[in-house]
Amino acid sequence: MAEIRCPMCGKSNPDSLDECQFCQARLKPITAPLDPLQPGEPPTKKNTSELEKTLPGWLREARKAEDDNTGFEETPAETGSVSKADSTDLLGGLADAQEEEEEVPDWLSRLSPDTVKTPDRKTPSTPKESGSGDWLSEIRHETPDTSEQAPTTPEPESFEAGPETGSIDLGESTFRVDDSADESGFGSFSFGKADEEDNQIQADDSEVQPFITFDGDGSTAEGELPSWLSNFAEGNSDQEPSESTEPETADTSEPQAEGELPNWLSGFSADENPAQDTALETPAAPEEPLKEETQKAEESQVPAFEGELPDWLSTLPSDGEQGQSFTGDAEEPVQQAATPSEPGPEAVSKEESPEWLANLPSESKATELPNVRAFTDSLKKMPTDESSPDVGLPNWLGDESAGEPEGSDAVQPAAPESEPPVESELLDRLTASPAAGDGAAQEPPDITGTPFFVEEKASSDEDVEAIFSMDMPDWLSSLGPGDQEQSQASDDSAGESDESLVPGDLPGWVKAMRPVEAVVDKAPVDSGESDRKVEHKGPLAGLSGILPAGSASAPTHKTQTYAIKLQVSDAQQVNASLLERLLASEAKPRSLSTSAYVMPQRFLRWAIAVLLILVIGVTTFAGTSVVPLPNLYPNETLAAIKAINDLAADGTVLLVFDYNPGLSGEMEAAATPVVDHLMLKGMKLAALSSVPTGPALTERFMRSLQDSYDFQPDQQYVELGYLPGGSAGVLGFASNPLVTIGQTISGTNLWASPALENIKSLGDFSALVLLTDEPEIARTWIEQAKPKLGSRPLILVVSAQAEPMVRPYYESGQVQGMVTGLMGGVSYEKVNARPGLSTRYWDAFSFGIFFAELMIVAGGLWSLISAWLARRTQPAEKE
Amino acid sequence: MPGSSNLIAGIVSFLLTLMIFSYLLGDNPLFRVAVYVFVGVSAGYVAAVILYQVILADLLVPLFTASLIERLLLIIPMILSVLIMMKISRQLSWLGSPAMAYLVGAGAAVAVGGAVLGTLFPQTLAAFNFPSFISAISDRTGAEAQRLAYGLVVAFGTISTLIYFQFGAGVQQDGTVSRSRIVEIISWVGRIFIAITFGMLFAGLYAAAMTALIERLNFIINFFGSF
User: How many CB pairs under 8 A join A and B?
Assistant: First the structure.
């Protein structure tokens, strides 16, 4: 598939698309490619309806307003304000068009279909009604030279007397007015590209093809035209209307002075090359009506302009070297100027030509501005007969010529005494000459993309710029709708004071449209010596206008120098080296260390267990007494013996069995001599336990001794049972034992037994003997019960594993005696000379201790030898 | 038949003992069975003791036999007991929170009070023992001096042990972080006392366990001897 490149974004798109699929820009021009316009080639008609969407927004709205308006045939005099309103219907939207940034010039807005009449209108156009073409015809009448210089002015088909369509060639775009099928009598008002077919400019290089065509009703409301336009109509009424379709552009007029070309007109010259405005369509205007208009326009002359010529008109070159001069009453319909019934502008004497017209660029300039010359030539040929219908004039111009657009809100004349703004604006553009006597820079309306004239390619950029750089005439910028009458009245004096126009206040939309050149001060800015000073050193050597390197920019202090070397402190250096070593160590492969084979530990454990069992078993089984009993007794055991010996007889001793069944062998071995001693002493015993398994152990223990001493339950000893609550229970028992331990499940009151008679509190007990294998239980009873005991002794029978934790209590005096494990039991038995279980276990215990000692020594020796050997092998490996 | 019961009890004890000794060979089912039996029997016995000697004897029976005042006072522990039973249910466990809070609060108070009054103060006073110190100085027999020396050793050992657990360190002049020299020396002495203490604990544990082994072996021998 063929591809087409988008002119906006540059991306490729299929050929079948009309708009770019990326940026939505149009890929194909709306209009067909236009052939370059050749001088002297008559313009070809275009269908203006195709150019509808290319029109600016204000113009489209004006056209819409035109459709809504009725009574375009009203006379300008009768319905001045209405006509103005009507005249501005077509262009009325211009004033209301706020959406578009383009603001309608006042002169343009004043022009209405009512005032612009074509010669082909059914209604016979009065001299004033047909003023739309009169002003142009007047122009042509006053500029006979221009018309003479356009012998080869083509007779475009589209230019006819009273054509249905008119067109204004603006370079590549063609401003056409198609009045073909419109009830209101107005044709389509569109812009389009210049087309060879529609191109009505056939002038040679030295001339500018008249391009402006006016159509519309032949009658225009009188009074809608500005004064300058009406003056054209009057002045040139006896002149043949020049071809109005192709108004001579400012190329045929001599500018006032070189460099004084209005901005807006000079701006047009920049569009020398045909604008690639695809939005503009070539107006599809019938060729025949345009031809007729062209013929009639050529025949007509520009009506003489009696009043003060606007600058742009005065700058129009006359025939040969002078531009067209527009004289006459502005009230004259413009069509009169367009009617080719008057002699050409050659008939207009130079004396009568206004200054602005006289100051139009010369022929040399005109050669550079063919469009303007063409316009002027066409104006010359426009019929000046008032009765003749407006030929070739666009509606908007024809309506203006029909009369003063009194109520025109679009047209804003600069000053009352100034020239009619519409004509001057138009002619300024056509002649491309600076406004004569217009000291202030006028700001022509910004017609971006819609150049007013068809510019030949041969025309230089300067000429084009000169055309569109013309300043807005004062009268055009300041003239308002209400001032049109004043402008008309002061037309007589306008010509005289044309040079002394006071710049008026430009409306906002005009300011917005004016080119940049109009804003920028043309006065050469004296930048001083710095601009003329040429730089001799540095990278900018040879260039001028460079900002001097002043002392302000130069550094006043020495710049701080930074050391290249990295500033690192010692600590940072150490950390960095450490990190480096860590990273390096990660990269190094680790050596696999072979671990020594370790013998399974269970064999060693079995061996030790077997040996130990053999030693103990053999000893126990043999019942030997090889190991002598200890001769040194522990002090705590002796203290316990002493404490029990000091107990009063027939007292009750509280025995607390708080040891676990697992160590019952040791506990029984250690407690047996103590309980035996108590029983031997004849003490009553009360057994209590704070652990749940205590009562069972108590019964087991007491059964083993019962046989020896014939202790009877409830008589010699009482089992109080289980004391719940842990330390709280002990505290409660210590505080009130009768309440804590009440009655049994059978309802028996234990405290009523003979063993517990006279026992009301813990202090009534003779002693408290605690049997425990846990240091915590011992601490609990010591902390909770000892304060309640008072002076009663507290004797502990503890396991060997709890002795280190409990001894401080004995050392502090809180415990009066302590029997520790099998050693304590043996000592107690030996002191009492009552051998018992402890004595029986003593040999086995001793051999077992000895065996353990041997194991510890052997293990220690083995560890030392192993370490010594390991140290010997490490230096050898390092070496 | 006490003889038969004793025989059965003996046989069961013997078997259970051997099953426990089988742990020398490693963890095995026999050992586990013996442990499970021991745990179960212990739990059952404990439950029976609590039921008979606490719940029935101290709560339920007095509700029917005690005086009115005692009965009214028993309502409070009954309600708390029921509430703490709600801990079984996840949805109603919040009901047991007040009872549990009472238990925890009461137990903590008893424990703290006993620790302060029964351990901290008496032990501290015993460590000072100024009267003994004074008498020891004047004593010329040597008995008090011996006690004094003993006290000094104990005191020095206590202080050095506490200093050993002082790990606060500062930056030295050479930039290293360590304790002072004198602290290091004293902590080294305290480490010796700590080691001696650990040795004593191990010895006592070994002695207790060996005594238990002796008793069991004696039981086994006597059991076989009885046949």
Answer: 158
